[in-house]
Amino acid sequence: DAKTTQPTSMDCAEGRAANLPCNHSTISGNEYVYWYRQIHSQGPQYIIHGLKNNETNEMASLIITEDRKSSTLILPHATLRDTAVYYCIVERTSGSRLTFGEGTQLTVNP
Amino acid sequence: DTAVSQTPKYLVTQMGNDKSIKCEQNLGHDTMYWYKQDSKKFLKIMFSYNNKELIINETVPNRFSPKSPDKAHLNLHINSLELGDSAVYFCASSARTAFPYEQYFGPGTRLTVT
């Protein structure tokens, strides 16, 4: 599975959009991009996934570049409860073998 | 109506003991997983069962033995506990009939070996 690179930490003001980048330059054609988050002391939570088209659900939007070498997770109106570690994962076996990296610690400030 | 539950939430034990962690899901999923999150917060898959059959077995010491009595349960038994086993263990489940497989995680079991 392709390796991902994410910033170690980011800050965002409450109510503003949080844009979390992820580089996955070695992604192959059959690999999906998954985003999970882990709020302190809780189990990871699925956010969204995509293959090549942009995706949106009730939690977030996922923008994947045309060459698929990077993606951005967008939380449109961040709240304090969105403070968590966000993991970008690239995986080819349909999400059954997730490899979590270091992720990005997002801190939403009041 | 917890989706994925684990017991116990905290487990403190001494080196050399044998302990079990239980996991149950009420989502009707057919695949269950065990993950280990170490002190550096790296989360790594250990095992995966689909319909009670082992399908993923990462490089894990033989002291760790998963047991799946039915599709809704996946227990983790650990023999001869060592200090390095101290970690948070997460159970997860997914439905292989729903592609791609979104995983639902339990709250975790914090194991401390002294």
User: Which band does the percent of strand residues of chain A land in?
Assistant: over 45%
Write down the oligomeric state: heterodimer
The proportion of residues forming helix of chain B, as a percent range, comes to under 10%
Extended strand count of chain B = 11
User: What average pLDDT do the residues of chain B reach?
Assistant: 91
The largest pleated sheet of chain B is described as: 7 strands, mixed
Spell out the helices and strands of chain B N to C. Answer: EEEEEEEEEEE
Beta strands of chain A, count: 9
State Rg of chain A. 13 Å
The percentage helix of chain A is under 10%
Q: Largest interface, per-chain counts?
A: A-B, 21 and 24 residues
Gross morphology of chain A is: globular
Residue share in β-strands of chain B? over 45%
Order of helices and strands of chain A: EEEEEEEEE
Estimated structural class of chain B? mainly beta
The neighbouring-strand order within the major sheet of chain A is 1-9-8-3-4
Could you explain the architecture of this structure?
The complex is a heterodimer of chains A (about 110) and B (about 110). Chain A has strands at about 10-15, 20-25, 30-40, 45-50, 55, 60-65, 70-75, 85-90, 105-110. By secondary structure, chain A is mainly β. In chain A, the strands form 2 sheets. A 5-stranded mixed β-sheet of chain A has the order 1-9-8-3-4, with no helix packed on it. In chain A, strands 2-7-6-5 form a 4-stranded antiparallel β-sheet, with no helix packed on it. In chain A, a hairpin with a 5-residue loop joins strand 6 and strand 7 (about 70-75). The mean pLDDT of chain A is about 90. Chain B is mostly beta strands. Chain B has no helices and 11 strands. At the A-B interface, strand 3 and strand 4 of A face strand 5, strand 9 and strand 10 of B.
